[in-house]
Design a protein that fits this description.
The chain is an alpha/beta fold. The protein has 8 helices and 6 strands; from the N terminus they run ααββααβαβαββαα. The chain has one domain: Uracil-DNA Glycosylase, subunit E, CATH 3.40.470. The chain has a 6-stranded mixed β-sheet with strand order 1-3-2-4-6-5, with helices on both faces. Strand 5 and strand 6 form a beta hairpin. Helix 4 packs across helix 8 and helix 5 crosses helix 6. The longest helix is centred in the middle third of the chain and has 19 residues. The protein is globular and about 40 Å long. The chain starts with a helix and ends with a helix. The mean pLDDT is about 95. Bound molecules: iron/sulfur cluster (SF4). Iron/sulfur cluster binds next to helix 2 and helix 5.
Length: about 220
């Protein structure tokens, strides 16, 4: 069994945060997905497992995205924005991420989240964040051993800070170097940020290209 298979096997059984376990299992399906079977477990990260040099860290799965489809950044509007940018940066085989069977592959990239279960209102408590980071994100960073990390939003950065033991101020478009790993910061591609123009597709593509260049992905 590879580290990834063992990691996922263990992760999807996690029930350490009672509030999040309850929410992920009880969240009401949207009418348009009412016939679908929701995943309702910790949502697996994915990517170019054996060749990843760039790690993308989101906040947490979306209620009707990853918590429905069972794959991080899959099936909601944030995922479509991110994958359009990844495709434009030459890091994804397709400009979308719809389901676990959509045939999309990532190149040089591993996608994960600071918190692996959907939180109510996209807001994990500080205890939930710390618990999830110490059990899962810290281990993933060790296993993947990325050269570049892209933090999508402040909470993602906070999770990375806890995992790697540093402090930095979140500033969209900037980066910080920690023991040879460069951590790039971007606003999260949430509808609130993308619909208002706070995060534009070309801005995210530029950050991904910087991460790609630093990681040495050709
Ligand atoms: Fe486990 Fe993380 Fe889910 Fe908490 S949020 S139950 S630590 S997987």
């Amino acid at each position: 069994m590879s580290w990834y298979e063992g990691f996922i096997d263990e992760l999807i059984k996690c029930r350490l945060c009672p509030r999040l376990v309850k929410y992920r299992e009880e969240v009401k399906p949207l009418p348009k997905f009412s016939k679908e079977h929701y995943w309702r477990k910790p949502v697996p990260p994915w990517g170019d497992i054996n060749n990843a040099k760039i790690m993308i860290v989101g906040l947490a799965p979306a209620a009707h995205g990853g918590n429905r489809t069972g794959r991080m950044f899959t099936g909601d509007s944030s995922a479509q924005f991110l994958f359009k940018a990844l495709y434009m940066a030459g890091l994804s085989s397709k400009p979308y991420s719809i389901s676990r069977n959509d045939g999309v592959s990532l190149r040089c990239v591993y996608i994960t989240s600071a918190v692996k279960c959907v939180p109510p209102n996209n807001k994990p408590s500080s205890d939930e964040l710390s618990t999830c980071v110490s059990h899962w994100l810290s281990r993933e960073i060790k296993y993947v051993n990325p050269r570049s990390i892209v933090a999508l939003g402040r909470i993602a950065l906070l999770g990375i800070e806890q995992a790697l033991g540093f402090k930095a101020e979140f500033k969209h478009g900037s980066y910080v170097d920690v023991n040879g790993v460069r951590i790039f910061m971007s606003y999260h591609p949430s509808p609130r940020n993308t619909n208002t123009g706070r995060l534009k597709i070309n801005d995210l593509v530029s950050i991904l290209l910087l991460a790609k260049d630093y990681a040495g992905c050709t």
